[in-house]
Amino acid sequence: MTDPGLKDIWVYLSASPLLGLTMTLVAYGLAYRLYLRTRSNPLANPVVTSVVMLIGVLVLTGTPYNDYFEGGQFVHFLLGPATVALAVPLYQQFTRLRQLWLPVTISLVCGVTIAAGSSIGLAWLLGGSTEIQMSLAPKSATAPVAMGISEKIGGLPSLTAVLVVITGITGAVLGTKLFEWIRVTDDTARGIAMGVAAHGIGTARAFQVSPQMGAFSGLAMALSAFATALLVPWLVDLMQFLVSQSSSS
Amino acid sequence: MNFLNGITLLLVYQLVGEVTVRLLDVPIPGPVLGMVMLFVTLLIRGQAPESVDQASSALLSHLSLLFVPAGVGMMVHFDRIAEEWVPITLALLLSTIITMVATALIMQLTSRWLVGARQGKEPDGD
């Protein structure tokens, strides 16, 4: 980079959101093509491949995350309207939902409690710090919800955002295989489980399996965002109370 | 124009959701409340307008893309994750598997018990 012209261009690009935004879309485009090439193999999940590519480029060029996010935020912002947009598939599945409201409610409450309880419990058993336990607790909820809850209960919101994405990827990659093993064949049950455990990334995967699984996954993701916001702070208090009781006696 | 109307409507619902959440100080995120309000609106109207349908499928068909910038944020937390990688990876992996398996089984069993028994009959129009 001895050429002053090139250097000027780099200075311009690294300060402008254009580069981060374009990089995100190009990386995702490549990752998506790879995903189609592998005949939608869940292991080639486009989120994984594009995140790996982007981190690689940023680390190699020594670009800080904040500079990248100047552009990345435009894509990130769309998570908000996308959450609102889930009302549409939900509405389209309304008749099916009305038949199933009781099982859906039971599964959601159990699922959300298991998701938060097991991640706090396991992290605690494995010697994770309180901060890590609290950052993990809301990991199955969609990113904006999880970050808000994490902040509330004493976790690190930005770490939670990352854990949410890793959780979603784990669910999307393992989901269909797991359902085969436990012989759950019903698309409504699979969709609900996917949405509760793996939020939007799981929902994206579910829509590829079938529209019905996608709609129920979207429904579960939306409702479990509600349930997580209401139940998890309370569950954390309860677990901390139990731990303090057992350690003081 | 249709698409633009749709996306505008989604943003209006998100905005109303965000404002309501802040005014009432409820622990639910604005977009989630916006989604509930849009859902109720669609129920009352009895149909989803073409424009909202278009905007919604456009956003939802590439839902994975929207998580990419947050995922790249992993690079900021490398050190923290490296420090406690055993509890983080194991708790995350096992808890996700447990949640998924348990929820799927609970949903399958409860829908068989509670709804399955009625499915053989004619729909009773309730």
TrEMBL record, chain A:
Keyword terms of this UniProt record: Membrane, Transmembrane, Transmembrane helix
The principal localisation class reads: membrane
Give the membrane topology, semicolon-separated if more than one.
Multi-pass membrane protein
* Signal peptide per UniProt: none
Q: Where in the cell is it found?
A: Membrane
Instruction: Give Gene Ontology CC terms.
Output: membrane
Q: Which organism is it from?
A: Marinobacter lipolyticus SM19
Transmembrane portions of the chain: 12-31, 43-62, 74-91, 100-126, 153-174, 215-236
Q: What is this protein called?
A: LrgB family protein
TrEMBL record, chain B:
Any GO CC annotation of this UniProt entry: plasma membrane
Q: Where is this chain's protein located in or outside the cell? A: Cell membrane
- Taxonomically, the superkingdom here is Bacteria
Q: Does the keyword Transmembrane helix apply?
A: yes
- Topology relative to the membrane: Multi-pass membrane protein
Record carries keyword Cell membrane: yes
Q: Which residues span the membrane?
A: 27-46, 58-76, 88-109
Q: Which controlled-vocabulary keywords does the entry list?
A: Cell membrane, Membrane, Transmembrane, Transmembrane helix
This chain belongs to the protein called LrgA protein
- To which species is this protein native? Marinobacter lipolyticus SM19
